[in-house]
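Tutorial, part two.
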Amino acid sequence: MNIVIADGLPASALEILQQPNWTVDNRQGRPTSELMADLATADALVVRSATKVTREMIANAPRLRVIARAGTGVDNVDVPAATARGIVVMNAPGANSLSVAELAMGQKVPGQMSLQKACGMQDPWACDLQKKLK
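Running the prediction step on this input gives:
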């Protein structure tokens, strides 16, 4: 199996793809013309959000069987063109859930601290904001 990786992947993902009889072409940032040439012999294409998989790319990849998006959504893949050719399009939903949760908590904590300072108290739930804002 010939796997073309168009965008950067973590080392842990690359390790999983190192299988017997699998060839991994991991060159990110290549020009579109070069990527299209590489897809001529590709069985699988792995992208993130930087690469847009167009109808033209899909048409020039006669062996392509799967397009995998290493992330959420497939908005950068021409899904109708892939489907018409019988190419499976998949993504990794929830792959960034932990990062989103960390970001949300990271933004909530400083916001909570500001609320405490605005109320002048240690217990933010005891704060009556309506009285403070009048």
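The chain has a mean pLDDT of 85. In part three we will examine how such features are distributed along the chain.
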